[in-house]
Structure to design on (396 residues):
DNA sequence: TATTCAATGAACAGCGCCGTTCCATCAAAT
DNA sequence: ATTTGATGGAACGGCGCTGTTCATTGAATA
């Protein structure tokens, strides 16, 4: 790198190694926040707690994330980036309703199991999350439901009932409840049976 | 309910009309607390809020209910006293598993619907409730599950699966989830089908 | 070497809740 | 008429959290 001597008055400042350290600090904050969300849950997570866990001052947290939404967005993006997210597009090849159901629910339940610590807190405290985050969650849930429903050729009353039951089957709480005593596979079987019998 | 005390010097003091007023105050507090639990939920209910709603001082609330458990117990007892509580004993005449299931779930779901405002908050904030209250809730839930299970003549693996599925069917959250799009009757049908297919 | 700037550390004011104290009030009971 | 006791009213100290200011540190940078 070539250097130039400058006069004391006004020189642009291009950070390089410095920028990395800043990002590291930011990352430590996000990691701490994600960890807390997954243990004490969003409702038990405080700025002070995050700062302490990140080995940083409250003020530093505020500077990186001016408001809750900024922090939650960063957390959610980072956490999702290290999950294998269920992907309806990959279920598309299964045209048979029953088969798509099995594959889709299995994919969903695997995701639920892998991320249960975080999801438990998130769904419990959903009402306390920033509006935008809540909407994102609802949208995803709706997408899974509608995608599974789309494999069926129904309308009217039957469609309404199917949508309700599929919505139930795809709910995190349903997975949670069923797997108190069932394996994931058994839960998939149970819900598939239920839906096909509707 | 209210006791008399003796002062060294004389005159026993038996309250009569007075005692009624005390009980009225106590009742106003309980009513206010129940109302708040059913609207903002236990987690949003504060002593200050109860006092304000009851038209009483915080101090008066503390005097009637020294700790949370005393208050919650009184609330729960009073609320339950004005509910038609599901009663497994009345399901006993139905020996046929399918029939007992329908009757039991219908009774349970009716109770859930009638008390949904309160139950929503209670189940959401269950972790914050006093230990004793939480145990009472868990015991009731377990009782319903086991009573429905008892109609089946099963054991081993099948019993485990049945217990899990019946537990799921009897959960408040399951009722809540299903009745987003189904009627109570349809929900009973769905869960009965699910259980009988297990 | 002099400059830049992320991060620190300390303090502030504010909020709402907690549980407790002391004293005054006033109707009911004797 | 006097005593009793439930309630009111006001204040206290404590807690933990919020979001903000200010001056300082110290390492990366030019």
């Amino acid at each position: 790198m070539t250097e130039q001597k400058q006069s004391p008055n006004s020189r642009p400042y291009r950070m390089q190694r410095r920028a990395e350290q800043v990002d590291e600090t930011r990352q430590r904050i996000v990691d701490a926040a994600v960890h807390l969300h997954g243990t004490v849950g969003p409702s038990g997570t405080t700025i002070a707690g995050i700062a302490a866990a990140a080995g940083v001052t409250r003020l530093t947290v505020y500077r990186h994330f001016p408001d809750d939404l900024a922090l939650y967005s960063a957390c959610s993006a980072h956490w999702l980036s290290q999950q294998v997210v269920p992907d309806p597009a990959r279920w598309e090849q299964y045209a048979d309703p029953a088969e798509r159901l099995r594959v889709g629910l299995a994919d969903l339940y695997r995701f639920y199991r892998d991320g249960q610590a975080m999801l438990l807190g998130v769904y419990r405290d959903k009402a306390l999350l920033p509006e935008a985050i809540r909407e994102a969650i609802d949208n995803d849930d709706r997408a899974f439901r509608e995608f599974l429903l789309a494999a069926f050729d129904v309308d009217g009353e039957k469609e309404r009932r199917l949508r309700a039951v599929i919505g139930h089957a795809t709910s995190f709480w349903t997975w949670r409840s069923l797997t108190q005593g069932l394996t994931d596979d058994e839960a998939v079987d149970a819900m598939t049976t239920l839906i096909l019998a509707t």
About this structure: Residues 1-13 of chain A have pLDDT under 50 and may be disordered.
